[in-house]
Fold this sequence. Notes:
7 helices; mainly alpha
Amino acid sequence: MSKVESTENLTQGDVKSFLQVYTIGRERRQILEKRRQCLIGELRAALPGPLDAGSNLAKIEARLIAQRRDMAVLMLKVLDLVALLPLDSLERRIVEMRHIDGMDWKGISSALYLSRSYTMSRYSRALDMLLSHEAAREIVAAWKCEHSMRDGD
Length: 153
């Protein structure tokens, strides 16, 4: 698939899926930290005494750090995408509240003193604004390609 084809076939659903990466990343980071604490406790109980740098604990720590780093990179790409929306626009505020702050639609509408339907229409407009931006299409297309290759789609 050529670069032009991959960016021209993107939909609002593709952009929404990419924006969800931030929320998923935040949740995954919390899961990884809990997993780290659990594994450390289990290893310390199973292997009494000092744990050296070559131990299983160090290997587990390295893997979890790499996973957190990968999630951080994706989260930064989402922030890059959101930054393509005009700074003071209502569309950007809605996207930030939804995908960065993790707010639900009722909370966003209330915070902005807007009806839910108007909030949703401005959100849809934000997605269209992103789709019309070449840099945004390239970010989403690259993620979609990587995501589908990793998942075997």
